[in-house]
Amino acid sequence: MVTGKGGTGKTTVAAALALALAEGGRRTLLVEVEGRQGIAQLFETEPLPYEERKIAVTHGGGEVYALAVDAERALLDYLQMFYKLGSAGRALKRLGAVDFATTIAPGLRDVLLTGKTCEAVRRRDKQQRPVYDAVVMDAPPTGRITRFLGVNEEVAGLAKVGPVHHQAQAVMRVLKSPETAVHLVTLLEEMPVQETVDGIAELRAAGLPVGNIVVNQVRPRLPGEEQLTTAGARHDGIARALARAGLGGARRGGRAERLVAPLLDEGREHAERLVLERGLRDELHRQQLPLLELGLLSGGVELAGLYRLARRLRAALDELSAQQARPDRRTPPAQRTRPHGTHP
User: Fold this and answer.
1) Rounded CA gap, 214 and 12, in Å?
2) What is residue 71's predicted lDDT score, i.e. its pLDDT?
3) Which of the residues 81, 137, 149, 301 has the least number of beta carbons within 10 Å of its own beta carbon?
4) Helices (H), 24-107
5) SS3 for 120-139, per residue?
6) Where is region (Disordered) located (predicted)?
7) Closest Cα partner for 175 from 132, 195, 145?
8) Among 316, 321, 318, which Cα is nearest to 338's?
């Protein structure tokens, strides 16, 4: 499950994770549950239907399939599965009963969305092997992820017997099992970090498995950043350096000197930003979870950029796995993995 505050790039990270996990000949399923067709846009393909469709091939022959879960169609599946309604179920849809049920029944829509995803997790082929090596859900935002994942437990408690009760219990067994992890995507900004911290607390309180924190769009460090806090004291020296570089004469009030003030203002703002980001990183470290950082894509998130992001994420996950596998490892569980190819 990949969640995050709106605008943090959770859909992009979910897509990159599906690509990363498919490397080396594996097969993954990428599931969308919010009806936005964000996955289709990322992979530059037609809108996803309510069926599993192959949308990408990765290095080593891996395959990524995608599914846009529709609550109404999922409800018809359940009616057929549990009650063998067949054409009667389709008649209910024509009469508007299916849309009515998914709109007014508390939590029913979320039960259907999570249930369809968990069915893909549990599905086996003729040799009883999992059809998919991994299933990745582009989940709802952090603010409602705990409610979204916990609704099956509420339904299981309300429906004491019958197929609905057993289905809800089966879904919760998957969601709370070691097979599942909820990864939280954030930016190094105050609101997303606070929502991430709150989301982690809610997930832990609900007994749901929290995975990694993914810090997205991390800007690469610039040479000399550590000197920005003291740059204001070197006004004259900076003016002379600009003059030597050919940016105006060295005389008092010349072009070089006029450039110094706006440059110092920008440098001061950047230094303040670095201090803020350092504090936000510390706050994320205090959550005692693995912290993965993904560098900012300078060219934007087009299809080639998505594959680059997947390679960075694969490298970060491999590094994290190597750290956790060392028997004499002394690094804390919140050890940060730097953005691949951007930090030293």
Assistant:
1) 12
2) 74
3) 81
4) 38-42, 71-83, 87-94, 97-104
5) HHHCECCCCCECCCEEEEEC
6) 320-344
7) 145
8) 316
- The two tokens of residue 217 are 């769009």
- The β-bridge relationship of strands 63-68 and 53-57 is antiparallel
End-to-end CA separation in angstroms for the chain: 30
Q: How does 190-210 read in b/e, with b if 16+ C-beta sit within 10 Å?
A: eebbebbbebbebbeeeebbb
Percent of the chain residues topping a pLDDT of 70: 72
Sequence-distant (6+) residues with CB within 8 A of 251 are none
Please give the structure tokens belonging to residue 286. 């205090």
The H or E element containing residue 218 is: strand 210-218
Q: Is 216 helix (H, G, I), strand (E, B) or coil?
A: strand
Q: What is the CA radius of gyration of the chain?
A: 25
pLDDT digits (tens, 9 = 90+) for 89-144: 454 455 454 454 445 455 677 877 888 898 899 999 999 999 999 999 999 999 99
C-alpha 4/C-alpha 138 separation (Å) is 10
Q: In whole angstroms, what is the distance from residue 135 CA to residue 206 CA? A: 22
CA–CA distance, 94 with 262 (Å, rounded to integer): 65
pLDDT tens digits, 77-88? 766 655 454 544
